[in-house]
Design brief:
By secondary structure, the protein is α+β, with helices and mostly antiparallel strands. The protein folds into 3 domains: about 1-140, D-tyrosyl-tRNA(Tyr) deacylase (D-tyrosyl-trna(Tyr) Deacylase, Chain: A), CATH 3.50.80.10; about 165-495, 2-Layer Sandwich (BirA Bifunctional Protein, domain 2), CATH 3.30.930; about 515-625, 3-Layer(aba) Sandwich (Rossmann fold), CATH 3.40.50. Helices cover about 30% and strands about 30% of the residues. The protein contains 17 helices and 29 strands. The strands form 6 sheets. It has a 10-stranded mixed sheet. Strand 20 and strand 21 form a beta hairpin. Helix 5 (about 215-225) crosses helix 13, helix 6 crosses helix 13 and helix 9 (about 365-390) packs parallel to helix 11 (about 405-415). The model is unreliable at about 145-155 (pLDDT under 50).
Length: about 625
């Protein structure tokens, strides 16, 4: 079964003419509904293997989606155009009638368009991120049909790992580890006023409500600032990035890559697609809590990587490693990792199905070496968050036995953080790691999202036959750390935009860090008489690796300044006769909200101070504002 779900202000339809001989008899040729989730439905041949199953799934899906989007009613609309493999009309009518009756029995406000008629209809889609969704429903136990001619390209159903099923049913205990090394049950901890975000983070983790019921603020910003947008020509959770957004991503990627290189990480590249029948990989799939994309190539089935683990594991298996080489760190900037996240969680940049993940795997000689390396990576992650300028909360997850044996290590992490942390404790080990930390950003909707993370893995070196030669000449299995010092690059952009919104709520001007601002300095000549002089000033600023542009449009100075404010430009200068004569400029500084007189050299030095030690890339758009196309 194929269904297309449209959340609409209204739908109106009218039956015009019978399309098939056995069209149902009309009780009314017209009907309508408001604030309605319209389910366009095509019943397929494959559904005939389990009509009750697909009908109950259809009912459950439309009810769930209607609740998520806040629809007041549901409309079932037979729509044969969604499939080229339709069931018999009799079967399709039965499914729709049964679904309609089931919804009516559950006291849901529902209407149904007549089956077998040509109909005219009018619909107004609401246009929010969850207003257009598509679903494929199969009878329980049925395999997705892949036509022979389409096997090379056809994506098939996402595979749910055993680890993910375990995670959904996982029972754990929650604590706060405070600065006095006291492990306090979460239910007994008294949160201080300044720990409001820690409380929100703990509530989110315990309740595990991942789906969103309203659009997060960053979605408006990502479009208004031409950073990123939804890609209607792709699968949900795959985004398009405009020049400004691409610049921000590349700066973040370069920064985290430099951090890893400074630690001794060796950068590699590995494939994005792997054989699902590989004896090591097939076992690992069930140990990793992620839904996987699968695809067919010829007669073989593959999966798209959900991290850069696989290629690095196989590479390490083939390496010759001595104890003298340890720790060994392999790093990949994985531009394409794929996870088949639930559709209700795919809003904006917070959670995607295709994302960029800087991924490092470190081999250490033993657990003492692993903990030493873990501390280094914890500190680097703190430095990353400082560069980003984003507030965060810390969660650490332990297998209880490991925690009991390493309490001093846990206390040391809290001392480094300088604040209480949330502890999740598992009584048995559900995954391949014994502990991990996550730095979590809490957004405007009180949803927490993990950024930096490191895990201690005690399974996979043995599973993949990764060994080193120890001092005694014997082969041994190392301990492995999984680390992403930054977390997903896309999610970092989400955090930056949400942080800007939260700053505005506190009375501050929203902005990006200066090193990530697409334009760092905006020059606004008073009129065209000063265009040439302004160009000379821009050339001088640009020579100092500062992104500068010129608003030379035939607009008022007031409008130019307002638009610079709207674009969150950190430094804005108006160039006129006084400035040309004196060599001094009144600079609007966004961060402080004040104007101050500066020479050109003073301005350059201030920007360079703000961006010292951080990557630089040139302006991503034409320097003259008048020459720029609009993307949104």
């Amino acid at each position: 079964m194929r269904i297309l779900l449209i959340h609409s202000d209204y739908i109106k339809f009218e039956a015009k003419k019978k399309a098939i001989k056995d069209a149902e008899e009309l009780t009314s040729a017209q009907d309508s509904a408001e604030n309605v989730l319209v389910a366009f439905v095509a019943v397929e041949k494959a559904d005939e293997a389990g009509l009750d199953s697909v009908t109950s799934q259809l009912v459950a899906e439309v009810k769930k989606t209607a609740k998520e989007v806040g629809a007041a009613s549901i409309a079932l609309y037979p729509y044969a155009h969604l499939s080229s493999s339709l069931s018999s009309p009799k079967t399709a009518k039965k499914v729709l009638d049964d679904a309609y009756d089931s919804l009516k029995k559950e006291d849901v406000k529902v209407i149904k368009a007549p089956f077998g008629w040509y109909k005219g209809f009018e619909i107004k889609c609401k246009g929010h991120p969850m207003s257009e969704l598509s679903r494929t429903i199969l009878p329980e136990g049925a395999a997705p049909a892949v036509p022979c001619e389409a096997k090379e390209e056809k994506m098939v159903e996402a595979r749910v790992s055993e680890a993910l099923k375990t995670e959904d049913a996982l029972k754990s205990e929650w604590y706060v580890l405070d600065m006095q090394s006291k492990l306090i049950p979460l239910s007994e901890y008294k949160f201080k006023k300044e720990e409001a975000n820690l409380k929100k983070f703990s509530d989110y983790e315990v309740n595990k409500v991942r789906a969103v019921d309203q659009e997060p603020p960053h979605v408006k910003y990502m479009r208004a600032h031409e950073i990123a947008d939804y890609e209607p020509g792709s699968d949900q959770g795959n985004m398009r990035w405009y020049p400004k957004g691409s610049l921000i991503k590349r700066l973040l990627e370069e920064r985290v890559s430099n951090i890893v290189a400074g630690l001794g990480g060796m950068q590699v590249e590995t494939p994005i697609m792997y054989d699902i029948a590989h004896p090591c990989l097939s076992k690992y799939l069930d140990r990793f809590p992620a839904r996987q994309y699968r695809l067919m190539s010829g007669e073989k089935e593959y999966f798209l990587r959900f991290a850069a683990c696989f290629g690095q594991y196989l590479m390490k298996h083939d390496m010759t490693i001595s104890y003298k080489h340890l720790p060994v760190r392999l790093y990949e900037l994985s531009h394409y990792s794929f996870r088949y996240e639930k559709s209700g969680e795919l809003v904006g940049l917070r959670r995607l199905r295709a994302f960029t993940m800087p991924d490092m795997h470190t081999l250490t000689r033993d657990m003492d070496g692993a903990k030493e390396e873990f501390l280094k990576q914890f500190k680097l992650s703190m430095k990353w968050m400082e560069d980003l300028g984003v507030e965060y909360e810390i969660g650490i997850r332990f297998v209880r036995e490991f925690y009991e044996a390493n309490k001093d290590f846990a206390d040391e992490l809290v001392r480094l953080a300088g604040r209480p942390v949330i502890i999740e404790m598992w009584n048995s080990r559900p995954f391949y790691f014994v502990m991990k930390f996550e730095f979590n950003f809490v957004d405007a909707l009180n949803k927490a999202s993990a950024l930096s993370t490191v895990q201690i893995d005690i399974e996979n070196t043995e599973r993949f036959g990764i060994k080193y030669i120890d001092i005694d000449g014997k082969e041994k299995y190392p301990i492995m750390l999984h680390a992403s010092i930054s977390g997903s690059i896309d999610r970092n952009v989400f955090a930056l935009l949400e942080m800007a919104y939260l700053s505005m709520q506190k009375g501050k001007k929203p902005m990006l860090p200066v090193w990530l601002s697409p334009t760092q300095v905006r020059l606004a000549p008073l009129n065209e008489q000063f265009n040439e002089y302004t160009k000379q000033i821009a050339d001088e600023i640009e020579k100092n690796c500062i992104r500068v542009d010129i608003d030379e449009r035939n607009e008022t100075v007031g409008k130019k300044i307002r638009e610079a404010e709207t674009e969150w430009i950190p430094y804005t200068l108006v160039i006129g006769e006084n400035e040309q004569k004196s060599g001094k400029y009144m600079v609007r500084v966004r961060a402080s909200g004040v104007q101050k007189e500066m020479t050109l050299q003073e301005l350059i030095e201030e920007v360079k101070t703000q961006t010292a030690g951080l990557p630089y890339k040139p302006l991503p758009l034409p320097r003259n504002v008048s020459e720029r196309p609009r993307f949104v």
